[in-house]
Structure prediction request, 954 residues.
Amino acid sequence: MKVVLQNVTKKFPNRNKRIKEEVIAVNKFNVEIPDGKLIGLLGPSGCGKSTALNLLSGLLKPTEGRIFFGEDDVTNLPAENRGVGLVFQNYALYPHLTVLQNIMFPLQNFKGDKKLTKEVMKEKAYEAAKLVQIDTLMDRKPSELSGGQQQRVAIARALVKMPRILLLDEPLSNLDARLRLQTREEIRRIQRETKITTIFVTHDQEEAMSISDLIIVMKDGSIHQIGAPQEVYDNPVDGFVAKFLGTPPINMFRGRVEAGKLWIGDEAVLSVTGAPEGPVAAGIRPEGFVLDEKGPLSCKLAEIEVMGRDVTVVSTHEESENVEIRSIISAENKVDLAAEKVRFSLKPNKVLLFDVTTDARIYFNAN
Amino acid sequence: MENNNKKGWLYLIPAILFLGVFMVYPLIDVLIYSVEEGFNFASGESFGVGFYNYSYVLHDTYFLQAVKNTFILVLITVPVSTGLALLISAGLASITKLKELFQTVYFLPYVTNTLAVGLVFMILFKKTPYSDGMINVLIQAFGGSTVDFLDGTYAAKMFVLCAYTVWVVLPFKVLILTSALASVKQDYYNAAKVDGTSKARIFFRITLPMISPTVFYLVITGFIGAFKAYSDAVALFGTDLNAAGMNTMVGYIYDMLYGDSGGYPSFASAAAIVLFSIILTITCINLLVSKKHVHY
Amino acid sequence: MEKKPTYKTIEQRAKVRNALGKTVIYTLLAVWAVIVLFPFYWMVLTSVKSYGAYNSEYIPKFFTLSPTMQNYIDAFTEVPLAKYFFNTVVFTVATTALMLLVIVFAAFAFARLQFRGKDLVFTLFLALMMVPNELVVITNFVTITNMDLRNTFLGLILPSVTSVFYIYLLKENFAQVPDELYYAAKVDATSDLKYLFKVLLPICKPTVVTIVILKVIECWNSYVWPRLITDDKNYFLVSNGIQEIRENGFGRENIPAMMAAVVVISLPLIILFLVFRKKIMAGVSRGGTKG
Prediction:
C-alpha cells in the first residue's frame, strides 16, 4: 500500500496553559512512501516522530493536510477503521490474556460478513505466530515471556489481521543489545515475507540505517531529508543530518574558505572550488582521514584504540568542535604512539561543508 | 487522545442521576426543611420560614439528653479505642509467631452485624430474675457486687455502650495502625538500636511521630464515627432509646423522622444540621491541631 | 567493691528481659483475643443450649454437655428467618450488581474519556464524598415514600447504588492501566464497551473484587435505611429481623433461639471473611471506614 502525506501538520495546545501559542509537533509533512518498503522514521527524541506515527495510525487527527493509503483519503478515518497494525514501544499486550488470545483479539472485532469462525481465527493466529516463531508459546501469559518474545507477540498481533500498513514505535528500544541486532534482522525478514508497507520509528540511526529501504530524518517536527540510507549518509542536505548519522559521528571543524581552499587553523587542507568565501563548518567523516606524513592537517595525538580490522586514532585540534577527533584507518598503518603530532590528508568525498548560519550544505568541486 | 464529548457524559448519566436524586437534592432539601415552620407531612404545606425548628430541637429535653449521651460516648470511646489500638498494634508489630492468627481474630468484629452481636453483648450484661448474666458472674468471682448494666444506673448503661462501641471500632483501627507500623522503615529502628535507645524511647520518639498522620486520621474518623453512633445503642437498648435515656443524636433524628414519635422531617432536618455543624467544627479543630503536631 | 558485669551476664540479662517482654506481649494479645472471641463463643454456646437448660442456669455455664439443634429449627420455623435471609441476599446481590454497573461506567468516563467539564464534574463528585449519609437520609425517606416505594426492594436498593468513593477507587485503578492498551485496542477496531469489559475490568479485577466485598459487607449489615423504609415483615432484612425477633420474637424470652438466629445471620459474612481474609483486610485498609 502506497502511503502519501500531503502538507500534514499537527499542532497541540501548549502544556503551559498561559502560553497561547500552539506547539507544532509535525510541520507540513510531504512524503510519498512507496508500496512494500521498510521505512525508518528517524530523529532525536521529541522531534515529533511518534506524533507522525500516531497520525498514520489514526489515533491522532492532523490539524491540516491529508493522508492517503493508496488512493483512499483516510484523513478523517478513525483508528478503528483504518486497518493498520501498530506495535507499541512497550508492546501493550493484554496482561490477562494468553498469547493466543492476544493474537486473536483483533480478529474478534471483525463485523458483518468479515466475521470469522473460531477455527479460522485460530488458524490465522497460528499462522501469524509461526511467522514470528512463537507458535510454541501460545498458552503463556505475557508476564511469562521474555522481552524479545513479548515483542514478537506484539508483532504477530499487529500482523494477524493483515493490516494495510504496519507501524512500529521504537520496536527495539526495550531489548538488550544482542537481542536488538537479532530482532532487527527479524523485522527485515518479516517485512520481506509479508511485503506489507512498514514504517518504524526510532531514534537510533544505526538501527534505521541497517534495515530500512528508505529513511526519513526529521527534527523539530520537520522533515530534513528522505532517501536511501547510504545516499543520506553520503549526501546529507544539512549539518544536522550529517551529524545525526554515522558512528563514530562526523568530526566538525571551524574552517573558512579562502582562495578556493578550505582552511582549518592556518593550514589549507583541501581545495574546494566553487564554495563561496568566508567561514564554514567543515565536517570530516571518520573514514575520510588518511595517515600521511606530508598531509596538510596536523592534529595532536591523544590515543589509539585498536579494534582488530581497524584502528581508531583519537586526536585533538584547536579548531575542532568536538572534544576529540576520531579517525578510522586500516590496521595495516603503523602509528607511533610516542609521536606528539599526527598528520592526515583528506578524502575529498568525505569532507562536507555547511553554512555557519543556515546549516545548509555547501557544495564544492574538489579539483 | 481525541475528544468524545457526548460519550463521556453518556457513561456518567447513571451516576449523575442517582447522585443528583439521592445526594445533591436531599442536601439542599434538608436545609429547606429545617427552616420551614410547621411543615405538615401529609399536606406538604408549611406556615413559613424561620428558625422555630432549631429552637424546638434545642429546647427538647430528649435532644439535650441525646447530645449529652453522644458527647460522653465520643469523649470516652475515641481516646480509649485509639489508645488500645495503638497498644495492640504495637504488640502485634513486635511479634512474628501467631501474628497472622491474632490479626485475623482481631479483625473479626468488623465483618459482623452490629445488631446481631449487640444482642450477644446484651445477654452477656443483662441481669434478669433468672440470672445475673455472664459479666456479673465474673464480677462476683472477683469479689465485686452485681450491677444492673442495662436497666440500672446511667453510668452502668453508658459503660456497656462504650464497651461495645470500642469492641466494634477497634478492628478497623488495629488494621490501619498495623499497616502504618509495618511501613516504618526498619532502618530507623536499627539506627536507634545501635545508639542504645530504650524501647519506650524508640516508641515515643520514632514510631509515634512516624505514624502520627495515621493516628490523626484515625482520631478524626473516630470522632466522626462516634458522633454518628446509633445502631450500637439500638442493639443494646432496643429501638425505644428515649425511654432508656440512651438515645444518640442520630437516633433522635431517626425517631423524629419515623417510628412512634416520628413524622417531623423538619425537626429531624434541624437536628441533623445541628449535628453536622458540631461534627464540622470538631473536625476543623482536629485538623488545625494536627497541622501543628503531625510531623510531615 | 562492686563487681563489673561481664559480657556474659549482660547477655544473659538481655535474654531474660527479652523473654519477659515477649511473654507480657503475648499474654496481653491473648487476653484481647479472648475478649474479641468470647461473644462469638457465647453466642454459639447459648444457641445450642436448650431453652430449659438455659433458663435454669442462674450462673451461666461455660459449656454444655447436651447440645441441641432445636433452637435452629425454632429460628427457622417460629420466625420468618429464612425470609429475612432471602431478602437480604436479594438486596445485597441487586444493590452490589447495580452499583457495579453505575460505578464502572462512571470510572471509565473519568479515567479514559476526554470531554469538556470532566475535571469540574470529578471535583464535584469528590466533594460529595464528604456528605454524610445521615444528612440526606431524611429527604430520601420522603422521596421514597412519595414515590410509593416503601416496603419494596426498589425503595431499599435505589439510594445506595452509587458510591462516589468506589468510583474514585476504580477510576484511580483504571488510570493506572497504560494508555497503549487502549490505543492498541482502538487500532484493532475494538469498541469502548468491549475494551471496558474485555480488557480494563479483567485487569482491574482485584479492585473490583475488593469493592464487591466491601459493598456486600455494607449491605449485609445495613440497618438504618431498611428500618426506615420497611415496616412490612415481608421486606425485613436480617438486621431488622433480628431487632424484630428481639422485641416481639419467639413469644417469650427465648434467648437460645435468638442466639441461633444471630449465629445464622452472622455466619455468611464470617465465612466470607475467612475465605477472603487477605483481600478483605487489604480492601478495608485501602477503602473501608467504620467507627
